[in-house]
Amino acid sequence: MTGVHKVLGLMGLSGDEVTAVSHGTTVATNQLLEGKLDRIGFITTEGYESVLEIARQSVPDGYGNSYFWVKPPRIVPADLVRTVRGRLDPTGTEVRPFDEDDAVAAARFFRDAGIRTVGICFLHSYADDAHERRMLDVLRREHPGCVVSLSSEVLREYREYERSVTTLVDAAVKPRVGTYVSGIRRRLDDLAPGVPFYVMKSNGGVLSAEEVAHQPITTMLSGPAAGALGAALVAGTAGFDRVLTCDGGGTSTDVTVVVDGEPTLTTEGSVGDFPSKIPMIDVVTVGAGGGSIAWLSPEGTLKVGPRSAGADPGPMCYPHGGEEPTVTDAHVVLGRIPPHLLGGEIPLSVDAARAGLERLGATLDLSLERTATGILEISAWNQANALRQVTVARGLDVRDFTLTTFGGSGSLLACRLMDVLGLPRTLVPPNPGNLSAFGLLTVDVRNDHVQTAISRHADLDLDRVRARYADLEAAARAALDGEGFPPDRQRVQRTADLRYVGQAFEVRVPVPDGVLDAAAADDVARAFHAAHRQLYGYDFADDPRQAVEWVNLRVSGIGPIRRPDLVELAPTDGSPDRSVTGTRRVFFDAVHPSPSSGGDWLDTPIHRRTDLAAGDVVRGPAVIEEFGSTVPVHPGFAATVDRFGNLLLTKETTR
User: CA-to-CA distance for 450 and 158, rounded, in angstroms?
Assistant: First the structure.
């Protein structure tokens, strides 16, 4: 809101001039990453109270790790799980009636225990939500004011564990996200009554704040999704269609992969320890941001993150900073960022940061420089490992991609990441701290709907499938009607999840528009064979013994918007020296970094980025500063300004 008022003040405008506000938020992401979840309750079908313990048998990093790996804590402890008798079969037919007495007992238990947030997930409620609706009615009667999430509203899809956890994550973040969004809504109404207020969703679309308050889990990767879309557009315009995005903020760094201009989508995502089976841009989030705290493990090992100093109190160098050193403190002590933020609006105390790092270094018997560079090295490797997860772990060669860094802290370690990963170049867009906000201007309104309908392709009941798609499309269009899009501006996309019988995971393929007849269904099956071959290197298209199975039907309702144009810079004659504002002592790593190689303090030119022109080349060592971000150019690197004002970092020599 401070930013909205400031922009209007600078432009001499009133709130009446605001046509819409779009917002990307990391409220849910940070809450999950830091594990700051309130106590919530879980109501499920009798006999399934251990679904959270049983979970899945998959072990991170393969089964060789199974001896050492410990399952993460349950999102709901066992003593806050209650069951209700009643049962549906996979078609939604009632096998055992809903037990009202059990439901009342569960509601009263949570009321008496002071649990004000509850998730409900009954077996097979994706096929029929009648039992969940009855449980909701009981809770509203017996425990008014309780915040409730229903699995049939959050994820109408089979697989009980994933549906249960996704529902509970939605419940866990609902109070905080709802309070946050409604607070902004009230303050916007004071400024511009009734102005449309949209919130970014994880799936690459936006939704009105009123709807987001009812489905907050869709904002779980809200900020990272907007940044990925903005980076895809900027990098694609600059001529790069294979891109790794690296969005560095205060608490976390978010990375994703863009191929052919489109960020990869997944329904197998997670944040921290919590899997969430909702459509989302395939983002890997690590607790490695500017505010990530450096600390010592019980074994005496230096760690960085995931705990964060946040914005209040913030890093030690902040005016009212915290008491533990952070990544930002390491940068400011080494001179890689100026002793202020936002063009001087927020002064930073180098002395306070130095004192904190010296205390930490004394416990490790390390000098100030070694302590600070050690913190940054750990942070860089945390980010590099996240980038490997979205490339190498998915069969992609990380060296084929252009890294695009943005966010307030995203570009500070760009040169080191290029060394670690062997990347050919890094693109830093103009105003990188605002790229996620720019991404919001490129985003369509989007809502996703899913229905599990398992059937072998050979036995597909086309009338039933058409009816299910019609229901999903009607729900999508109704949502777009509510968002203010007339019918002639609405677009609907159909997809389906298919697999070979016996497989545990599906492949999503497009379903053509128009009447879904036998020929169109066969086209979908052929698309599945082709997609399976592309993903896994083989298919069974010519093997009649291997049947294809339809699993989930999906519909996305899209309300398109007009995207902004990127402005080209006019080339100018002369040297980039025109942009030099002075020099500062900066500590850079040695040319060949190693634990014992150390580094050097160098008198380093400071460049004002807004004074650079297309074609300028800034050779390291140098620091390029702008209002919201800083780019340290290490020795042996060069930054070239392209015609759109992007900085292209490359290595100048074999290092």
Answer: 10
Name the band, by pLDDT with cuts 50, 70 and 90, for residue 637. Answer: very high
The β-bridge partners of 304 are 294
Backbone angle region of 512, left / alpha / beta, with phi > 0 → left and psi within -120 to 50 → alpha: beta
Task: Please provide residue 525's backbone torsions phi and psi, each rounded to the nearest 5 degrees.
Answer: -65, -40
Q: Hunting for tokens 């459509």 — which residue is that? A: 279
Residue type, 193: P
- pTM of the predicted structure, to 2 decimals: 0.76
Mean pLDDT (whole number) for 443-470: 92
78: amino acid identity, one letter: A
Mean pLDDT of the 539-553 span:
93
Q: Rounded to an integer, what distance in angstroms lies between the CA atom of residue 256 and that of residue 282?
A: 6
Rounded mean pLDDT of 382-388?
Answer: 93
- What DSSP string describes 242-311? EEEEEEE-SS-EEEEEEETTEEPEESSEEETTEEE-S-EE--EEES-STTEEEEE-TTS-EEEEEEE-TT
CA distance 539 to 142: 54
**Dihedral sign (CA 201, 205, 210, 211):** negative
Helix/strand number for the chain, H first, E second = 16, 34
Beta bridge partner(s), residue 239: none
According to the per-residue pLDDT averaged within each range, which of 45-59, 264-278, 580-594 is highest? 45-59
Which residue from 618, 620, 625, 624 is spatially nearest to 641, judged by alpha carbons?
Answer: 618
Evaluated on CA atoms 170, 171, 176, 177, the torsion sign reads: positive
Backbone angles phi, psi at 379, to 5 degrees: -60, -40
Q: pLDDT per residue over 155-177, tens digit each?
A: 888 889 989 999 999 999 999 88
Give the separation between CA 222 and CA 268, rounded to whole angstroms.
Answer: 16
Burial (CB < 10 A; 0-12, 13-18, 19+), residue 444, is middle
Q: Give the list of residues 6+ apart from residue 552 with CB closer than 8 angstroms, or none.
A: 157, 450, 451, 452, 453, 496, 497, 506
Nearest-angstrom CA–CA distance, 502 and 458: 15
Among 200, 168, 388, 201, smallest CA distance to 274 is for 168
